[in-house]
Write a structure and sequence with these properties.
This protein is an alpha/beta fold and 260 residues long. The chain is 44% helix and 15% strand. A 7-stranded parallel beta sheet has the order 3-2-1-4-5-6-7, with helices on both faces.
Amino acid sequence: MSTPIAPGGASAPSQHSSSPRVAVVTGGSRGIGRRAVARLAAEGYAVVVGYSGSQDKAEAAVKEAVADGGQAIAVRAHIADERAVAELFDAAEEKFGGVDVVVHAAGRMDLAPIAELDLAVLDDLHRTNIRGTFVVAQQAARRVRPGGAIITFSTSVVKLSFPGYGAYAASKGAVEAMTLILAREMRGRDVTVNAVAPGPTATDLFLDGKDEETVARLAAQPPLERLGTPGDIAEVVAFLASPAGHWINGQVIRANGGII
């Protein structure tokens, strides 16, 4: 079941040409998704913050967007649950009148050598990253309005082939395949479909479990000699979502500072 959270006193926009474009952002309560929420809200989007875990963080993302003059609600939905995801999109349509942009930033990362990974962990990882992406993409394909954009998330590790990332990279390779196929299936709809594939980026998900030496080594790999930030990636998302980025379609954008 979805649980809408709306700022006090907010009202749905009237349905006319001055209504804002509407973005659904999964994984919008933390990391890159949270920063994408703020960036799109600053551009005038009405944003639906999809989350599955922390209600407090989702509420904070909504408050931040509203404080910057935007409109936002948060809706709980596990991305692998097709009914919950349908309700997430229903909430966007009921509150704001439709969906123009979908940013699918939700996912999980479990690391271990292939020889050692528990297969139950593999199943959970793929349920979230592969099935979850498929479920969100399916609703997005049915609902995004002409002129809109669907943005999924892969990882530069698909090409970097870091040891220990076998299961995670495999799941994101599936995301890339789905994304490129969906772009072609959307022919005639005037909707773009692209994947953003960050390199090492300073999020809690990335930093968790890594010692300072490992982080420093990864930060030194790009020619720009630093980790990416959620803000770096949110800028790519904002461009792909905007009319300025509408000629970019069916691509995987490796936003990694030149590491590959």
